[in-house]
What we know:
The chain has 211 residues and is α/β, with parallel strands linked by helices. The protein is 55% helix and 13% strand.
Amino acid sequence: MAERRGRFITLEGGEGAGKSTQAARLCAWLSELGHETVQTREPGGTPGAEEIRSLLTTGAADRWTPESEALLLYAARADHVARLIRPALERRAWVVCDRFADSTRAYQGAGHGMARETLDALHRAALGDFEPDLTLILDLPPEEGLKRAAARGGEARFESLPADFHARLRQGFLDIATAAPDRCAVIDASGDADAVADAVQAIVKARLTPG
Length: 211
Ligand code: TMP
């Protein structure tokens, strides 16, 4: 039977885990297998959501309350899903997204203390039961990730949060994977980019049989 829709894969993790590198490599591999691929990111991915991204990623660490952040993130996400992700899935593309709702659960939830029920209610209001088909969590000790992120430079608002925030964040992602094992897989991101790309491909092959 012909596939009715494409697949939605998200890459998650703390700062400097190598998500964007791995998103590009995963898309290149899926394209070689003959799939239309769409590489995108959050916050962002559409013109409106990219404008919201610049509000979120620049300025002082206390520029927004966690609640305002979550609302901005879901405003961006609703636009991104409606205008880019759903239409791509409907034409059977494979969509690879650098961060998605698990980042809100980990950053605004585990990191900043927002209740999971509040974030779940926001998710339902914005997106119903829409979730990725597969979520790859790139796991790395925060010290190592922050070192890599600092070397890369750029948008630093979230990187400037204290060490205990980044420790809660890492645990938050691991707890998400434990609670949703059918959707999530944790990948050790401390190796080099080739080793991580091999691990990513092995999991995508096993879970989604891309061909
Ligand atoms: P990036 O550095 O991975 O591109 O992500 C931008 C920043 O936005 C990153 O520091 C994490 C933060 N963020 C959240 O706090 N919650 C979210 O839901 C998302 C998508 C990103």
